[in-house]
Specification:
By secondary structure, the chain is of the alpha+beta class. It folds into three domains: 56 residues; 195 residues, 3-Layer(aba) Sandwich (D-Maltodextrin-Binding Protein, domain 2), CATH 3.40.190; 162 residues, D-Maltodextrin-Binding Protein, domain 2, CATH 3.40.190.10. It has 14 helices and 13 strands. The strands form three sheets. Strands 5, 6, 7, 8, 9, 10 and 11 form a seven-stranded mixed β-sheet that branches. β9 and β10 form a beta hairpin. The chain is globular. It starts with a helix and ends with a helix. This is Serotransferrin-like. One of its GO terms (cellular component) is plasma membrane. Keywords: Signal.
């Protein structure tokens, strides 16, 4: 009897230990702090606060409270080498879940409020292109389209977080910020010539720099002036700075320190207030207005044309589009495409064309249309059906000829993103993560409350835990039966 009582008590004690704190409850969403020390080595201007935890989940972006950007740094949970394609960022509820407490209203609230409008958030001059675009889009199925104008991408992300807008088109670097900080997901992407869903990140220099110097490389531009498509953008910043970091083995400096230590002057405006580095194109204090004429890929090329910089980092087709002969030439387009060459990162130069091949920093995922993770499924399907049909292609062609087009000039069509957001961003997300890692104290990987693994791995781990519980429960039950059975 005493043995039976002891085993029963042991069983109850064992089961009482299996509380929700053993990994069955979702990890909390990261919190965000508005505090920022610009240029501080210990904080990255676009990263979530370190108070949050990273958890695997469904659509792989964090539940985000009202966000006041730029937030303080949360160190990256792992080094770039350990980031696998399937590794995930914090995740909210499943798509369309009405229990989602992050950005925007639930689908039920939307229907109750009678909302039947898709609101596309645009930045500055994009608004005019958006107006042209929506005129040619399907207004049926109970939805209409509306363009909302903001001064910066930061303001757009905040509007989407508050449920005041639905969509924004972003390049991959800023898309990663929206994914991590604003609980947003990729729903559609641009498609370029030959059905390409990526573009090349390149460096462009004056042809004179290449003449008589066949072995010239990026390292030869140390101490020179640089032009960037934007701070924290993939082609304009993350890819080239990551290359410099690897070449110099600068693991003890953050991205801003690497850039300012390598280049004498920098022109890298930002869509996030207080984060741009504009010693080469700003005011006396080295700051630049958010609507700087040198922002974006075309702005970086303008910086090079006007000789504010000696090298520009941008998309491969930018020079072809905005040079004197280009279809999108501007009032400042005073030089020919023949005046410039691609600078191969590891040495040599190549003629400007849309296919630099190995003379690039790598492929960047096509610009992506992002929406809140709480976007109702019915509305998401309407958006995809509208943007991907044949009639919308004509509207796209009409709406991409401004100085700052809403849709990239090379876009041929829009396609639905059929991958999870982190997977779609791929290597670009990995590089963005490695940039964040540079802000970790002593540049060591920060411990995470959970393993930053894929959905499948997370489910397998959970299943393994449950199997262990069942096995132990079975053993204890068998012992009880043996004790109670008369010999």
């Amino acid at each position: 009897m005493e043995i039976s009582t002891f085993l029963s008590f042991s069983l109850l004690l064992f089961l009482s230990l299996l509380s929700p704190t053993q990994g069955f409850e979702p990890s909390p969403a990261p919190s965000f702090s508005s505090s920022l020390a610009p240029g501080s080595a210990s904080s990255h201007p676009l990263a979530p606060d370190s108070g949050g935890t990273l958890a695997p989940g469904s659509d792989l972006s964090p539940q985000s409270p009202a966000l006041s950007l730029p937030p303080s740094l949360a160190p990256a949970p792992m080094t770039a080498e350990k980031v696998r394609e399937a590794d995930v960022a914090p995740a909210p509820e499943m798509e369309g879940s009405e229990s989602f407490k992050g950005a925007g209203p639930s689908s039920q609230e939307v229907e109750e409020a009678g909302k039947q409008m898709v609101r596309w958030c645009t930045v500055r001059e994009e608004y005019e292109d958006c107006q042209l675009l929506v005129r040619g889009l399907d207004q049926s199925n109970g939805y209409t389209w509306k363009c909302i104008q903001k001064e910066t991408a930061q303001e757009c992300l905040e509007s989407i977080t508050r449920g005041e807008a639905d969509l924004i088109n972003l390049e991959a670097g800023v898309a990663y910020t929206a994914f991590i900080n604003n609980s947003m997901k990729a729903i559609a992407n641009e498609v370029y010539c030959d059905h390409a869903r990526s573009y090349q990140a390149v460096a462009v220099v004056d042809r004179k720099a290449c003449q008589g110097n066949k072995g010239i490389s990026l390292m030869d531009f140390e101490g020179h002036k640089s032009c960037h498509g934007g701070y924290s953008t993939a082609a304009g910043w993350n890819y080239p700075i990551n290359h410099i970091k690897e070449s110099l083995d600068s693991q003890r400096m953050n991205d801003r320190e690497i850039a300012t230590g390598f280049f004498s002057k920098i022109c890298a405006p930002s869509e996030f207030e207080g984060t741009g580095i504009c010693s080469g194109c700003g005011n006396e204090n080295g700051s630049c207005h958010l609507s700087s004429p040198y922002s974006g890929d075309h702005g970086a090329f303008r910086c090079l044309v006007e000789e504010l910089g000696d090298i520009a980092f941008l998309k491969a087709d930018t020079v072809l589009l905005y040079s004197m002969e280009g279809p999108h030439n501007q009032s400042w387009s005073s030089k020919s495409v023949r005046d410039f060459m691609y600078l191969c990162p590891d040495g040599g130069c190549r003629e400007i064309n849309d296919y630099p091949g190995s003379c690039s920093f790598g492929a960047v995922p096509a610009n992506v249309i992002m929406a809140s993770n709480s976007l109702p499924n019915k509305e998401r399907l309407f958006i995809l059906q509208t943007l991907t049909n044949a009639a919308s292609v004509e509207a796209l062609q009409t709406a991409k000829y401004g100085a700052s087009p809403l849709i990239s000039p090379s876009t041929q069509e829009i396609a639905a993103v059929k991958k999870l957001t982190r997977s779609y961003l791929g290597m670009s997300a990995t590089i963005s993560q490695s940039i964040l890692q540079l802000y970790t104290p002593n540049n060591q990987a920060a411990p995470s409350s959970v393993n930053p693994v894929s959905d499948v791995a997370s489910q397998s781990s959970s299943c393994g835990h449950n199997s262990l519980v069942i096995a132990l429960f079975s053993v204890l039950t068998m012992l009880l039966l043996l004790v109670r059975t008369p010999m």
